[in-house]
Every structure is written in C-alpha cells, then in structure tokens.
Design goal:
The protein has 112 residues and is of the alpha/beta class. 20% of the residues lie in helices and 38% in strands.
C-alpha cells in the first residue's frame, strides 16, 4: 500500500514558486488553512496530484506579508480572504479581495 500523504516545509518566498510548479504538473488546490502559533501563523497549502495529497507548511510572523496564489489557482481567493479576515494575515495581490467583508462578523480578526 502506498502512502498518499506528504508534508514538506516551505519558506514564505517559495509559496508561489511551488504553486506554479504544481499547476504545471496538473495538480489541483485542495485547501489552504491557517492556525495561530506563539510566533505568528502556520499555513498549510494542500494540493492533489495523481491521487496523492501534497501538503506544504509555511510558518510566518504576525507582521509578515505573503503573496497570493490566486493568479495560479483562482479558487484560492476564498481561502486567502478567510485567512486575511479571520486571522489578520497580510496577503498581497488577491485576485478577488473582499477587503474584510467576506463574513458578517462582530469582531475584527477574531482568530488573531
């Protein structure tokens, strides 16, 4: 039985490079999630390629700004807007940026 899951660590600068590489190989974006850590945030980008989950973890500081992957995977706009609005993660160049209006929430960046 083959393992259908892998996890690799990326630097913030490698996010778009890896997304381009995977897109060129025919991968699809499965999800992006984030979690608050004591030093900032961990982001997990998950792709599916040939039936395998390929996961890439990126750790960033609270003040870091990352680049959007919506130019590569347009469906990332929902995940990125969510990370921005709920966690306060700074993401530049989101193709469809809801500017913190994706959710009707009472508290700004509730998971920050």
């Amino acid at each position: 039985m083959r393992e259908n899951y892998e996890l690799k660590i990326l630097s913030p600068e490698q996010i778009t490079i890896k997304a381009h590489s995977l897109r060129n190989k025919g991968a699809r974006l499965s999800q992006i999630c984030s979690v608050r850590t004591k030093d900032g945030y961990d982001l997990l980008y998950s792709y599916v390629l040939d039936g395998l989950f390929k996961n890439y973890k990126v750790s960033i500081s609270e003040t870091a700004e990352i680049e959007s992957i919506t130019a590569i995977f347009p469906n990332a706009f929902l995940y990125e807007n969510e990370m921005s609005e709920l966690f306060g993660i700074k993401i530049k160049y989101i193709a469809l940026d809801y500017k913190n209006k994706l959710y009707d929430i009472a508290v700004e960046t509730p998971f920050k």
